[in-house]
Amino acid sequence: MKRSTRRELIGTAAVGAAGLAAPPAFGRRVLSSRAGVGPGNFVDGVASGDPTAHALTFWSRLSTQRPRSGARLIVARDEGMRHVVATRVVPTGTAINGTLKKRVGRLKPYTEYFYVWESGNDVSDIGRTRTLPDPLSTQPLNIGFSSCQSYAQGYYSPHVHAAGEDLDLYVFLGDYIYAEGNPQRPGEPRADVWNAHDLRSYRAKYKLYRSDLGLRSLHQVHPTVHIWDDHEVENDYTDNHPAPSPLQRTSAYRVALEWLPRWVNRRDRFKIYKRIPIGRTADLFLLDERQYRTVDENNKPFRLLGDQQLAWLINGLQSSQATWKIVANQVLIAPIDYGTGPLVDTWGGYEATRAQVLGALERAGIDNVVFITGDAHVFMVNRLISNEESLRSNPNQPATAIEYMGGSVTSAGPQRTEAQVQARNPFNVEFNSYFHGYAHMALDPANLVTEYRASDITQQYGGTFAFERFTQPAGANEVSREQLRG
Ligand SMILES: [Fe+2]
């Protein structure tokens, strides 16, 4: 797509209009009589996700009271929706909250597509998306990532900015919603008052979060992937501490699958861990650090990933042919200590799993493994090694991998200085708990360059600026730091 066109899409969505309206000639072709297409309105935006080189999942939601209905998806090569490459009639109904989702294959690698949904009486905003590069491609990539977007604690200004970037993929690293209510406190712009615990309340939560036009714009213009962390279900849950009921867990997982543009594994509906090849430049490993974590008989952390996922991850990292191995990771893998010991809910509390993964990288000599992490509500960069204690006595040892934590979109974090954190944690390269925002990662065969970006979340469409840049040359497992502002 021409640059100006994407800006038009973003601009229209961001100022609160109904998105880029379908051209009138197109609107008149609405097929109210087509079998399987019912009445209803598209009031929750559009989205695309789970890209491969040849397929994408398209999403929208039909607001209708009918138990059974449907809408028509149209995918085209141009924003005028003239060069149509696929049409699908997609069923929906109240049983799945009116959500519409369709996987479309046989698309061309690294190609831009536009899509629209039509019902009997409405046409959705036009979405824009792109497939991933061919498996043999060394195409440079641009990826955005963030986590922790408490609706009550700020506006989604980081998403408005990210929607204006030329990104190949956007990765949500968890806490896309907060199941817990957050009554409006002084200094917080919005209220989010109820605790989600069943289908109805989780669905209402996603609808509320998706009502923010920044988040909606991001989904409208970029393909996304998502991994869930704890707050998509309940704070800090494991298999038995605390114990959300099976009904609550199932409801939370099911609604996340309904509302996010993700492909669903038919044999194991709630399995979200998987590898996404992005040409030869990168392999992206999506993890699930909630569903399979276990504690021992004394309620002490035991296994973070479960045996099957752990073996899959180590195998995948060892066999990957891509230059960069990017691990989309819910919770801190560096054993950060704020003064009370490593944080129990993170990899720091699951020392055996941590040593198994990093030890496997060290024994096999695997370079260019990068963890991108959510959860902690701060910006951080950490050098990783299986025995982090040895870094305390000899900080100059070579690192095994690097961890980048791209702040929180809005959720409040601990207020500490970098000097305080580094005094206890010599493996920490950067720490900033004052800003909110997101991270931009540019990858090519020679370098991985990560920029941290801070946004004004106190007002809708607040400004965004880059404040740090980190360059990691391929093969080095080290970063150089450049302060840009702030
Ligand atoms: Fe969070």
Topology, pairings included?
Layout: H1 3-14, H2 24-27, E1 46-49, E2 56-61, E3 69-76, E4 84-92, E5 99-104, E6 112-118, E7 127-130, E8 141-146, H3 157-163, E9 169-172, H4 199-210, H5 213-221, E10 223-226, H6 246-259, E11 274-278, E12 282-286, E13 294-295, E14 301-303, H7 307-319, E15 324-329, H8 351-364, E16 369-373, E17 379-384, H9 388-393, E18 401-406, H10 418-424, E19 428-432, E20 437-443, E21 447-455, E22 464-473, E23 480-483
Parallel strand pairs: 1-10, 8-9, 9-10, 12-15, 15-16, 16-18
Antiparallel strand pairs: 1-2, 2-5, 3-4, 3-6, 6-7, 8-20, 11-12, 13-14, 17-18, 17-19, 20-21, 21-22, 22-23
Helix pairs in contact: 1-5, 3-5, 4-6, 7-8
Bound molecules: fe (ii) ion.
